[in-house]
Design goal:
Layout: H1 2-14, H2 19-36, H3 42-46
């Protein structure tokens, strides 16, 4: 959680709000790959990439 606090503080201080959607999309894609790799839908998810 400390990392998220520091990341948010960076966005606040540097006014880099345009980076927030990029970070969120990368996080969602990473979570999708991790969870899909452990399930039966993995072959279908990997065809998207």
């Amino acid at each position: 959680m400390e990392f998220l606090k520091e990341l948010f503080a960076f966005f606040m201080e540097r006014k880099k709000w345009w980076l927030l959607p990029v970070v969120l999309v990368l996080l969602v894609l990473g979570l999708l790959l991790v969870f899909a790799g452990q399930s039966a839908v993995a072959p279908f998810i990997y065809t998207l990439f």
